[in-house]
Amino acid sequence: MPDEGPELEARLTEQEYFRPPTDFVGQANVTDPDIHERFDENYPEAFEEYAELLDWDEHWDEVLDDSNPPFYEWFTGGKLNASHNCIDRHLDERKNQAAIIWEGTDADESETITYQDLYNRVNAMAASLQDVDVREDDVVTCHLPMLPALPVTMLACARIGAPHSEVFAGFSAQALADRIDSADSDVVVTCDGYYRRGEFLNHKEKCDEALEAAESDVDTVLLWTREDELHPDVEIGEDDPYVLVDDLLADNERARVDPVSRDAEDPLFLMYTSGTTGQPKGCQHRTGGYLSYVTATSKNVLDIKPEDTYWCAADIGWITGHSYIVYGPLSLGTTSVMYEDTPDYPHKGRIWEIAERYDVDIFHTSPTAVRMFMKWGEEYVQDYDFDFRHMTTVGEPIQPEAWLWYYKYIGGEDAAIVDTWWQTETGGHLITNLPALDDMKPGSAGKAVPGIQPAIYDDNGDPIEPASGRAGNLVIEKPWPGMLQTVYGNDERFIEEYWQDFSDTDSDDPEDWVYKAGDGAVHGQDSYYRVLGRLDDVMNVAGHRLGTMELESAVAEVEDAAEAAVASREDAEKGEVPDVYVVLRDGIEPSEAVRDRIVSAVEDEIGKFARPANVIFCGDLPKTRSGKIMRRILENISNGEELGNTTTLRDPSVPEEIRDQVQGD
Ligand code: WT7
């Protein structure tokens, strides 16, 4: 372990930049310092390098068709299959190598799935999907937890050209129902249950409720089982549309399903994410551009090599897991680790125990997790013998202290670290250093990925000079292969949410179209970007994106509530947590029971992970003269700050009263 002396502490905390370790640089996938220039000078053709990492059935005609912005098309005319690229093409060289190592809740339970096993399972599942009439272009909604069933189902869908729409298992029945309806899925895939902190959780129940709540008529629900048989606590009613996956698989054990040759622009999957309205948006990702982009960034940014054991400790139910547990790593033919349960079950050393057991080389996590590990203390780490070469953080800004702790205690001061900024919409990393090329800077995501053109704009839509050190709106000025195609079924919303604010929407010149990320950022003199956080009504709770409007509409479901506003409160561990300010209907008194109803409404409409930190009953909400709720003022109250400018309010005494109530006087 590293030297613990005070000198080292001082050096660590004062130092602004950290060199990537020499050993790392010596073996890195990208060591050519001209890569940025090459991409800038040869845009967009340079992205062919990415596409060339894949097997194509037919070569593309054009790298980028930008004739109809913002509906850009990548590698047009090309044809390929994602499941072939993640599995079949590796069989000759590494059929016996582990593709996925799955570790269950119990340390005694694990599965090593070789590429050959994965091939067999995915083929059998693809045939099973066909048996229940899933056809090319049907959207299959999945609600699966961290079991091998999830990547197997995704890759089986990809094999037959049916876009999957995975809904994170922690989402509630209602959230699942909304997504089934939005995608109009006839077939849903779920499981009987899984383990949380060692306890079996009946997961099918959520699907039962979702089927009740959904408007769509779901024909079939494919039910995976966590154990060899249906769990005794879980029942299937006679008229239920459930079919046991195991029964179908048994019929298809030796099935071979030819991967469908998909157009590069055919959708691979949908991933719903929160925005500034009450309705989540289905980000639609294409096959060719997306797979090229995540494969290349897995190689260049995550430094994955086929012989590595790579562990991204995220959930596949979010974009991080899609891009960097499943598609990118498997496309490169590496070994990807997945773990079923929480990091502290049954003990706080569980993560490091797994890292030691499989001799993990590359480790990927979130700042929230790092803050939690830091709170638990380094003693849980020091018991285990593991040695990461490379580490990543994603999802939120990381505080320099947390970064230093990660560097020192998890990386042993000899691992390269990248802080990767990106979004569900962007498919893959957009801002991050290439680990061997640039020095690490705690708290900074770093430079743009090659070929990516970020910029900072002021609120009038004018570009702020590069490297100015001034905060503004983070935008991306040129399209990239991993970007979303559209919002599923809603091109207008795609334009409204991402383009309208900084583009000339009447123009068909791509130069006039600029992608709005929704984040604030600073571009420093060193050309490093520091991402500050969301500028819109979207919160980031433990690295999960939550729309304040979605939370507010959940609270509005409670009859006692007349009006509600949600404000984000800074939280030492989760980054941000939601505070709910609520005005009760006439005649309803604040009580624990009302509070519980509000909290349950959020859990039911969205999921437990969205649970409000505080419910604050107030007489009125701060509103402008035109009646718009000023969430910013509530946010200041939640964070113990000054109220700020209240002159535009209809009644400036309203926030003062709330403040006195929350902060005391
Ligand atoms: C939002 C996107 C990308 C996968 C996980 C989240 C924030 C993401 C960083 C980072 C600072 C970050 C942004 C972004 N974010 N990465 N490295 N530093 N902030 O995906 O749910 O689509 O959320 O997460 O605010 O807009 P997501």
Explain how this protein is built:
One of its GO terms (biological process) is acetyl-CoA biosynthetic process from acetate. It is an enzyme of class 6 (ligase). The protein is of the alpha/beta class and 665 residues long. The chain has a domain at 558-663: ANL, C-terminal domain (GMP Synthetase, Chain A, domain 3, 2-Layer Sandwich), CATH 3.30.300.30. The strands form 8 sheets. An 8-stranded mixed beta sheet has the order 12-11-8-6-7-14-15-24, with helices on both faces. A 7-stranded mixed beta sheet has the order 5-4-17-16-18-19-20, sandwiched between helices. The protein starts with 5 loop residues before the first helix and ends with a helix. The mean pLDDT is 96. Bound molecules: 5'-O-[(S)-butoxy(hydroxy)phosphoryl]adenosine.
- From the coordinates shown, what is the CATH architecture of the domain at 558-663? 2-Layer Sandwich
Helical residue percent band: 25-40%
| Distance N to C terminus | 49 Å
CATH superfamily of the domain at 558-663: ANL, C-terminal domain
Highest-level CATH class of the domain at 558-663: Alpha Beta
Instruction: Note the total helix count.
Output: 22
User: Main sheet: which strands, in order across?
Assistant: 12-11-8-6-7-14-15-24
Largest sheet: 8 strands, mixed
Mean pLDDT: 96
Uncertain segments of ≥5 residues (pLDDT<50)?
A: none
- What's the overall geometry? globular
Output the CATH topology of the domain at 558-663: GMP Synthetase, Chain A, domain 3
Structural class: alpha/beta
Strand element count: 31
Proportion of beta-strand residues: 15-25%
